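Now produce a polypeptide, keeping tokens residue-aligned:
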Amino acid sequence: MKFKYLGTAAAEGWPAVFCRCENCERAKKAGGPNIRTRSQALINDDFLIDFPSDTNMHMLIHNIDLSAVKYLIVTHSHNDHFAPIDLFFRSKSYYAHNLTEEKLYLYSNEAVLDVYNKLLSDYPEEPTDLNIIPSYIPLYTPTQLGKYTVTALKANHKPSETAYVYLISDGDRTVLYLNDTGRLYDEVYDYLIANKIKADLISFDCTYVLLKSGGGHLGLDSCQIERDKMLEKGIADKDTRFIVNHFSHNGGAIYQELVPIAAKLSFETSYDGMELEI
């Protein structure tokens, strides 16, 4: 399985849109992996996780054929993870010619699908030949998307919405994608243990970075707790790759500072464009 981080920042990006704090100014000056866009990931060439407003920029920077994406799963309806206006530009009549894949299958929770349907109703004059098929994916129910098996797990994130984190398998490798979420619910562990899940890659939300974590996100402090629990429960082992992701500029450490700190705790640090073979 090929796994690529397209964007690795929290909602504000890093440097943040309007910010001139020390952390943002240092990131601007250092450049390279310190420049982080909104969170998104790509599996192989046909499976996309989340659809932020930076999607078009990700396509340009990373030379991606977005028309080859057949499956799009969305974690929740916060607009740094689902900004669906660009989905209009999948219209064959007006904007998208010579598509690699005829159809795009969109899977998520009810709130995301409501946002998508409202967009369509608010712009009835827009093209209707998008060939996007939206579907609800229920919690704790393995769903087959082509060669992929996707299971939505309950995220500890948005009180007004049942947000999702995802378990994704291609039949050979298994990814546990954990953003946005705080400390995992017991029911998530119960499901993973009961189904004897062993993850090859676990991508952790690390929004708080070096700060004390709380609420609907993790930081390095709580990532360690969750990682250790997964090792104890057999969800991970010595061969599992643990990667921290989804960083806020408020968390303090720019990339060059965070890498050695995270490495001492046995975490890899993601950056925009980071590509893995797992």
